[in-house]
Amino acid sequence: KEVIIIGAHLDHLGKCYEMMPGANDNASAVAVMIGVAKALAQNHIPLKRSVMFISFGSEEQGLLGSNKYIEDPVFPLENSVLLNMDGVGAGKSISTNAGENFPVMWSFVKDANTSYIHANLNTNFFSNLGRPRLDAAIFMRAGVPSLSFATSGSPSPYHLPGDNVEIIN
């Protein structure tokens, strides 16, 4: 009756004078999402909640995919949480939007990092719901607890032609 949604946006800007591949901005998150799904399937981990994987379309064109899901959810929104990724392939530090908004969810992330990952990890209080630019903000505005993950600490040419596979680490 409860679902953890693992999300990432599938689209990018395409061609605008030059090709902008979006290797970090979107493809890295979709790759991690697929990796999580594969790990759960192969390791037969008993889950206490359903896990749903969504690649949102049209994030770059106005968050249309996440808005569509909120309008017509598969699971009741009040029984959902979102772990969203956007730009997780370049850098070794992990930034998490909205950890201070959702301290219980954040505590699980902090504990997992301390036990297994050991990355530089930070969070914030996220309040940009009036003019959101993240799929997670659409979910937060609808009352769904949401964290959005990104990496930092190395060059990442955001929305530029250099966002290609060479920057992924």
Describe it for me?
- The protein is of the alpha/beta class.
- Helices cover 30% and strands 24% of the residues.
- Helix 3 links the parallel strand 6 and strand 7.
- The mean pLDDT is 88.
Q: How many whole angstroms does the radius of gyration measure?
A: 16 Å
Oligomeric state of the chains present here: single chain
Beta-strand percent range: 15-25%
Helical/strand content category: alpha/beta
Major sheet, described briefly? 6 strands, mixed
| Low-pLDDT segments, ≥5 res | none
Total of DSSP H or I helical runs spanning 4+ residues: 4
Termini separation comes to 37 Å
Helix content: 25-40%
Number of strands: 8
Please tell me the overall pLDDT.
88
Order of helices and strands: EEEHEHEEHEHE
Spatial order of the strands forming the largest sheet: 4-1-5-8-6-7
Apparent shape = globular
Entry keywords:
single chain; 169 residues; alpha/beta; 6-stranded mixed sheet; two-stranded antiparallel ribbon; 4 helices; 8 strands; 24% strand; globular
Task: List the topology elements.
Elements: E1 3-9, E2 14-16, E3 18-20, H1 23-43, E4 50-56, H2 64-71, E5 80-85, E6 93-97, H3 103-117, E7 121-123, H4 135-141, E8 146-152
Parallel strand pairs: 1-4, 1-5, 5-8, 6-7
Antiparallel strand pairs: 2-3, 6-8
